Amino acid sequence: MSASAILAQTAAEAKNAAAAGTAGFGYGLAAIGPGIGIGYLVGQSVQAMARQPEAAGMVRTTMFLGIAFTEALALIGFVVFILLKFA
Amino acid sequence: MGQAVLTRLEGPAPETAIAADLIKRAAMVAPAAIVVFGMVWHLGGAISTAFAIALVVGNFALAAFMMSYTAKISVGLMMGTALFGYMLRLGLIMLAFFLVKDTWWMKEGIVPFGITLVVTHLALLFWEMKFISASLAFPGLKPGVSKES
């Protein structure tokens, strides 16, 4: 194998490794935002339930939907990660 | 007189009802999605679409179960479960994907898998949100409420 072919192969491998690393890093970043969001959301919901226990059912309903919506952001990050790395 | 300090949530759990609704709707939508993606991405696409829908449904069911179970024990535990449960469920989705990523159907249908995962999750949520918004704004429209009351 010639030196240029070895260099080209090494460059391609380095590029693939960099792409995988970037995708993983991006997924990690994408999971941080929803984590903060869910923490804030649940904290505020518990405060609302503590202040007005009779509205707990409504608050829990809204909270659960809010958590699921926030989680969609992390799912999008996950999908982008797998598509960049494996597609 | 009510409890002075709210430490746990008793009574029916709305999370379970929401998750049951979402699962019912997913069961209605799943055949159409599987057929459509199967026509575009062939058998591999159909299988990976079904797998993605199963993951979304399992995710909702697990979230609802964990929240409703821990809410009966303690509100603090429910808060912890909301955050760590989120991490756990993301990890489980990732694990489920990595377990099947080398199968022929996932290699063939990774794109429909990704699309279905996000679109089904969001579509089911919007569907449920629309229903819940109407129920909260107009409780009389809620199914099961009699006209006389």
What kind of sheet is the major sheet of chain A? none
Outline of chain B: flat
Number of strands of chain B: 0
Whole-number mean pLDDT of chain A: 87
- Model regions low in confidence, pLDDT < 50 over at least 5 residues of chain B: none
Overall average residue pLDDT of chain B: 87
**What level of helicity do the residues of chain A show?**
over 70%
Q: Please mark out the parts of chain A with pLDDT under 50 across 5 or more consecutive residues, or reply none.
A: none
As an assembly, this protein is heterodimer
Percent helix of chain B, as a range, is: over 70%
Question: How far apart, in Å, are the first and last alpha carbons of chain A?
Answer: 29 Å
Number of strands of chain A: 0
**Strand composition percent of chain A:** under 5%
Largest interface by Cβ-Cβ < 8 Å:
A-B, 34 and 43 residues
What does this protein look like?
The complex is a heterodimer of chains A (87) and B (149). With 87 residues, chain A is mostly helical. Chain A has one domain (3-86): F1F0 ATP synthase subunit C (F1FO ATP Synthase, Up-down Bundle), CATH 1.20.20. In chain A, 92% of the residues lie in helices and 0% in strands. Chain A contains 2 helices and no strands. In chain A, helix 1 runs antiparallel to helix 2 (56-86). Chain A is rod-shaped and about 75 Å long. The model of chain A has no long low-confidence stretch (mean pLDDT 87). Chain B is an all-alpha fold and 149 residues long. Chain B has one domain (15-126). Chain B is built from 4 helices and no strands. Chain B has helices at 14-71, 75-100, 104-108, 110-137. In chain B, helix 1 crosses helix 4 (110-137). Chain B is flat, with a radius of gyration of 19 Å. Chain A binds chain B through residues 31, 34-35, 38-39, 42-43, 46, 49-50, 53-54, 56-58, 60-62, 64-65, 67-69, 71-72, 74-76, 78-79, 82-83, 86-87, and chain B through 2-3, 6, 9, 11-15, 18, 59-60, 63-64, 67, 71, 75, 78-79, 82-83, 86-87, 89-90, 93-94, 97, 101, 110-111, 113-115, 117-118, 121-122, 125, 128-129, 132, 136.
